[in-house]
Amino acid sequence: MFEHLKVLPQDPILQLMQSFREDPRPDKVDLGVGVYRDAAGNTPIMGAVREASKRLLLSETTKSYVGPAGSQGFNSGLTELLLGADSALSRDQRVSTIQTPGGCGALRMAAEFIKICKPDASVWVSTPTWANHLPLLGGAGLRIRDYPYLNRQSLEVDFDDMMATLETAQKEDLVLLHGCCHNPSGADLTMDQWQDLTALIQRKQLLPFVDMAYQGLGDGLEEDARGLRYLAEAVPEMLVAASCSKNFGLYRERTGGLMVISDNAKNHAAATSQLLSVIRAHYSMPPAHGAALVETILQNKELNRQWQDELNGMRERIRQLRLDFADKLAPAGDFDFIARQKGMFSFLGISEKQVHYLREQHGIYLLESSRINMAGLSDETLPRVAAAVREALDSA
Ligand code: LMR
User: How many domains does the chain have?
Assistant: First the structure.
């Protein structure tokens, strides 16, 4: 059965993680995979998460099944994080969130669900987008179309081009948007652009599908959700894949949710029943532990405060690194866009050859596309990385 199989190349992000691990140089720097790192280069367990773990250990009474939708407490907590407290959508029974194994689980279950609702619809994704969007959505059999997003010269959003291309989308096509902290570019839509885009989505009757993987790491928990909330108020139907990997630091616990908005309570009941049946047929039920930690934090005032303080600290550290890095690169050209962009990632805008130069000569690891994880820098490595980038720019 296996004799015809070829060995596949690894996903570029996972491949880079492995090459970094195998590099024996003690001063190597990992700017590849998107995980938050503190000033010492560690990805710590957040204090609020550690405290929630202790409480959970004492209070948990069973490991029995949770059901395909996961925990109701987690689901309503995530809905509130995404939409804000007292959303009219909740009161009208037009929205629910279903716990999933990470943001990837949410994206894939959304894709399988779309395949049932609209087998012929296309999903429009930004160029560039997170590499794993393509197999996650395409693997469910959906047709993928691209819309231009980033201007490769200025490394800013090419909004006119984006809008012109989305004008060609067909009624009921889906548009995948990054809720905040666009991965891989860090270039986000302004609120005016969210409004113009919402008008286009309404006029052309498209279905917005938002990937929210970095809420709280751009401008703040509320601020980062403003575009998504504006859209959610305006359209009849919408899907949101949310991840708790980065903002709760729960990466390996695989914690996320798929939020579904429907145009009325009756359709919503049918949609969620279909989605739960899709889930049952794939992994039956989500893992419980990460979601229980998030639920414990969100439901406890003091832990919630502690978590938000820690998240604010992470965001502020990334913002400061952006300012310092742009400053240190300034002699080599205009890198101000790094200071303006949001979240973990930016493109350096250097060539593949220069990326390889950094890896070979200096043990500095970034994706071939020149995406760097800003949070991988530290006060100690930042000047060294900036000097190496300037050297790489001179070298080719
Ligand atoms: C990234 O883009 O580096 C992260 O989302 C991690 C991953 O799974 O690719």
Answer: 2
CATH number, position 35: 3.90.1150.10
Residue pair 128/150 in contact by the 8 Å Cβ criterion: yes
Q: Whose CA is nearest to atom 6 of ligand 1?
A: 34
13 Cα nearest atom in ligand 1:
9
pLDDT at 222: 98
Percent of the chain predicted with pLDDT > 90: 96
The pLDDT of residue 310 is above 90: yes
pLDDT digits (tens, 9 = 90+) for 277-301: 999 999 999 999 999 999 999 999 9
Which pLDDT band holds residue 396 (cuts at 50, 70, 90)? low
Q: In this predicted structure, what is the pLDDT of residue 43?
A: 95
In this prediction, residue 86 carries a pLDDT of 85
| Residue 5 belongs to a domain | no
Q: Which of 13, 30, 104 to mutate to test the pocket of ligand 1 (most atoms within 8 A of CB)?
A: 13
Q: Cβ(132) to ligand 1 under 6 A?
A: yes
Q: Rounded to whole angstroms, how far apart are CA atoms 285 and 100?
A: 8
Using most ligand atoms within 8 A of CB, pick from 18, 31, 130 the residue to mutate for ligand 1: 130
Active site residues: 130, 211, 213, 246
Residue 343 beta carbon below 6 angstroms from any ligand 1 atom: no
Decide which of 299, 323, 338 is a domain's last residue: 299
| Tokens, residue 84 | 């804000």
CA of 195 from ligand 1 middle (Å) equals 28
Phi-psi region of 5 (alpha: psi -120 to 50; beta: other; left: phi over 0): beta
pLDDT score of 176 more than 80: yes
Residues 35 and 173 in one domain: no
Answer whether 57's CB lies under 8 Å from 392's CB: no
**Closest atom of ligand 1 to CA, residue 132:** 9
320 half-sphere exposure, CB direction, 13 A CA radius: 10
Separation of alpha carbons 269 and 264, rounded Å: 9
Output the residue whose Cα is nearest ligand 1's atom 5: 34
Contact assessment for residue 257 and residue 97, using Cβ atoms and an 8 Å cutoff? yes
- pLDDT, one tens digit per residue, over 154-173 is 999 999 999 999 999 999 99
Predicted TM-score (pTM) of this structure: 0.96
How many Å lie between the centroid of ligand 1 and the Cα of residue 13? 7
Q: How far is the CA of 217 from the centre of ligand 1 (A)?
A: 15
Q: With contact defined as beta carbons under 8 Å apart, do 231 and 198 qualify?
A: yes
